[in-house]
């Protein structure tokens, strides 16, 4: 059973794909909202994130703050409750823009109360208007998703040519969705809303 | 079809021109306003912007804050809602004052709800009183605009002599407007207001 | 008599395990809340903590702020009263994510008024959703716990294989609990609530 | 026609004199106030200003905040509306205390609605009590003013001996006023108030 | 007559012991509270204090903020009035955790209005729960206290073995109290409350 | 006529003595308060002051905030109006604790409306309780005071032995007051209150 099943069992966690010095790897983006009773506001970013990755988190938040109402997300929570985004493992430095879709998805999952599908991994830079921009390391990332037992991967449309580099045996066992707008990511990654869904963070 | 058509289809995005280590390039300045319901205020700047480019953003904002009412823009939004200015790609460092006109235009587009004309690219430093000051790299920038399928370029008046360096074949296919006040930029770059125009960010 | 008896006699202190340049060591995480009358709010972290360890404290706080109500802890105190987390000795630099469980436990002890069991030591990274992630230095840490007269150790489940490296003679005198959720840590580490328990910090 | 005519046509812009690596130069200090409707407060300083020049701006502001009422300036605006001081060109680093008089004059022009006389250039450090202290580069600065078509220069009284170094042919075409108090600067540099004058920034 | 008599004649000053490059020395920790009328709040630390020593001040303040009411100190003053802790001489850098007891004592003296006994010097790290932890340089510190004419020294209990290194002739003229809780320090160091005692800072 | 006459003609300016690389020098500490109407609060320090000298300013302010009421100074102004302390010349870096008495005197002059006597120069570190601590460079400072035409110098009592190094011819023309409490400094340096004295800054 892939680790992602356990990790994404609660709303607010999305499975991303990263390139490390020695290949690709799966990473989990975790998001939480402070209990309103704590009166704690603001944004907290942890996981030894570099400058570019911290900016990705700000872009994800601004995207939801400006477009969230259209997406029927309770955006008011984004000011009244502290938002914390964490990317384990805590001691490993991480950087780059390609976790943009994963951060946006973790936040949308948290706000909507809809968990992220456990078989889905994703990678892609997000622009402020929600466009999904291309990223690097497609081959390593898909190999890592495959190794981790994930079966669906969301990839930027402009990375389509990079699929040529991925071994056929791996591609055969993965469903790859090419996306150009982050709304497509959310539609593919979030489990359907249930009547009992609520913000559980 | 040029990429700028897709990118500038919503208000708040303007097409700029930059010089990189290996020639000229097109860049998009994106601006968004947080939903009033989020209660989020302040200014957020992302895209690995250098000191000078961050100051350009502050100048664009101050210009609109002091002159925006004359321009019939809803300047009250500039304090009640967080403004985010982002320049993709997220991992590429950018600097210099020549995105001043592009930033001012993206913000005016956002506030007015009038999209930026998709065939228009622009470059120029803006002073606090709205004067358009000269910039470098005119030749590379016009070649880049041409390559990207853009047909209209707004250039500082004091850069007129630099047009001599641009190949005739390129100039012939571009409409170049020489501007000295940022109000001229806005007049040329923004699509006409329509009765249904509204702040969509 | 182990030092931990004296140190953990009041709520808000938990015994952790660390790796130093020359082996393992016991460390105490101390937490206090400012008297409401002082009007002092915010978070204070001392003990020459490195970046990663400061982030562990933020994760511990966010975990309690988002899940504390489920755990029946008075989370409102986390905004109305300054929280101070200190790790003596004051002049020794400390870093790393493995004090996550110890910080969470010290805070939960403080909020619940339930002291930490004096015979219990612990180590483990905590994720934002409360999962206990593996750490390094298991052998040195268990030897240190044993040397200090502690008899129970809480260890991340994913560190189970590392127990092979620990001498039988030491393991025989320790009760090791393998944990995967920080709620298990709190259940094992905190003394039962008594009718007279109250926040004493 | 000198550039200063165009630049100083609105209140809030004053013409200064600087020394660069290769001689003297004219610089323009621009000041603006945010529209009250924007609710934006504070002070913004741009133009790649060094530490000493930023302190000059603070001194100019404090001088007006403590003495402005005597000068019949609407000092209340200095707290209710954001003040932005910018010195183009945006990419050129600038430092030193000698723009003190120019900054004070630009701010007083903005607050009073009285434009700065377009034929006047100035240089001088200002102390917190409004005294004009001596500066360097008198010769280069006067040559630059002359080259730029300016006809009146305001100079610190204690720089009088440095006029010996300035070529007679240049001095003959310049009116030099030696000043020791910044109030003298304002009297000489600002155009008379007109009945229609108002804060236009 | 020892200097400490003059220095500790007002509440808020305590005599500490430090190790310098060339032996031990006496230092004075001074604390003051802003007049309520000034409306000035917060904490100010001066005396070129290093990171560890600044943390000692935060620990002393948090100790009093969480336990001060038990000690019958007016802890409300700690939020309504600015607290300033200064350690002369102003130009000499100082660091380390051993002024913890001295800082706590100076603050308790200030809050209680009870001056510190002029014949008492002290040294010791303080933990957040008020435990007195061992420090270095016992021999040099006791020699310095003796040289300065002080007759009583408060020392951490865990430093008892270090007394062996102190010359008999010096120990004979000093009363050394071994302490393990900062409450013992306060009991030994503060002069009795008098009916006229009041916060004089 | 000494420059100090002109400089200290308004309340808020005091004459200090400094040591530079090439001897002693006179410096002027200027203080101003923002007009209440500006709503500007806080503390501004300029003049390229080093860390130690900035701390001297904080100590001077805290001394007045805690003892100012005893001295019959309107300490309420210290929170309602921005305080700016500047030490010309603006481009010259300055550091060290010996301007403590001069800063305290400039502030007390400003608050009381009593100008500083123009013939008085001073030097000395101030502690938080108002004690005047010894400084260096006595010989150079007294020579500088003499050269500048000043006739009275206030010196820390503990610097008395350093007077031996000052040439008899200079000492004969100076009145030197040895002081140990900053209240003595204020008594000697401030001109008597007049019925018309008022805060003029
Ligand atoms: Ca970086
Ligand atoms: Ca799931
Ligand atoms: Ca830079
Ligand atoms: Ca368009
Ligand atoms: Ca680090
Ligand atoms: Ca216990
Ligand atoms: Ca500098
Ligand atoms: Ca003019
Ligand atoms: Ca340090
Ligand atoms: Ca005493
Ligand atoms: Ca320093
Ligand atoms: Ca005078």
Strand order of the largest sheet of chain A: 1-2-4-3
Q: Taking all residues together, what is the mean pLDDT of chain A? A: 93
**What structural class do you assign from the helix and strand content of chain A?**
alpha/beta
Write down the Rg of chain A: 16 Å
Unreliable spans of chain A: 197-201
3D shape of chain A: globular
Oligomer: homohexamer
Query: Which ions and ligands are bound to the chains?
Result: calcium ion
Q: What percent of residues of chain A are in strands?
A: 15-25%
Helix content of chain A: 25-40%
Element-by-element helix/strand order of chain A: HEEEHHEHEEEHEHEH
Alpha-carbon distance between the termini of chain A?
Answer: 24 Å
**Quantity of strands of chain A, as a count:** 9
CATH topology (level 3) name of chain A: Ribosomal Protein S5, domain 2
Tell me the name of the CATH class of chain A.
Alpha Beta
Features:
homohexamer, 201 residues, alpha/beta, Ribosomal Protein S5, domain 2, 3-stranded parallel beta sheet, 9 strands, binds calcium ion
Characterize this entry briefly.
Chain A contains seven helices and nine strands; from the N terminus they run αβββααβαβββαβαβα.
Q: What would you note in describing this structure?
A:
The structure is a homohexamer of 201-residue chains. Chain A is of the alpha/beta class. Chain A has a single domain (3-188), classed as 2-Layer Sandwich (Ribosomal Protein S5, domain 2), CATH 3.30.230.10. Helices cover 31% and strands 22% of the residues of chain A. Chain A is built from seven helices and nine strands. Chain A has helices spanning 3-7, 51-67, 77-80, 100-112, 138-147, 168-172, 182-189; strands spanning 13-20, 23-33, 43-46, 83-86, 120-122, 125-126, 132-133, 152-156, 175-179. In chain A, the strands form three sheets. Chain A has a four-stranded mixed β-sheet. In chain A, strands 5-8-9 form a three-stranded parallel β-sheet, with helices on both faces. A two-stranded antiparallel ribbon of chain A has the order 6-7. In chain A, α2 (51-67) crosses α4 and α4 (100-112) crosses α7 (182-189). The first copy, chain A, is globular, with a radius of gyration of 16 Å. Chain A starts with a helix and ends in a 12-residue tail after the last helix. The relative contact order of chain A is 0.21. Chains A and C meet through β2 of A and α2 and α3 of C. The structure holds calcium ion (12 copies). One calcium ion is lined by residues 50-51 of chain F.
């Amino acid at each position: 059973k892939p680790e992602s099943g356990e990790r994404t069992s609660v709303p607010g966690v999305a499975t991303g794909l990263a390139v490390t010095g020695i290949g690709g790897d799966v990473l989990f983006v975790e998001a939480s909202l402070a209990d309103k009773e704590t009166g704690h506001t603001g944004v907290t970013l942890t996981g030894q994130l570099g400058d570019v990755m911290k900016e990705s988190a700000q872009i994800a938040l601004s995207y939801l703050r400006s477009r969230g109402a259209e997406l029927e997300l309770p955006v008011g929570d984004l000011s009244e409750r502290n938002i914390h985004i964490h990317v384990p493992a805590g001691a490993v430095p991480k950087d780059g823009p390609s976790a943009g879709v994963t951060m946006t998805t973790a936040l949308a999952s948290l706000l909507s109360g809809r968990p992220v599908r456990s078989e889905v991994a994703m990678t892609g830079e997000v622009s402020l208007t929600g466009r999904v921009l291309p990223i690097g390391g497609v081959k390593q990332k898909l190999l890592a998703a495959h190794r981790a037992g994930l079966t669906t991967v969301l990839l930027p449309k402009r990375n389509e040519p990079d699929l040529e580099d991925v071994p056929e045996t791996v591609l055969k066992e993965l469903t790859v969705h090419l996306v150009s707008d982050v709304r497509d990511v959310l539609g593919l990654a979030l489990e359907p809303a249930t009547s009992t869904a609520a913000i559980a963070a």
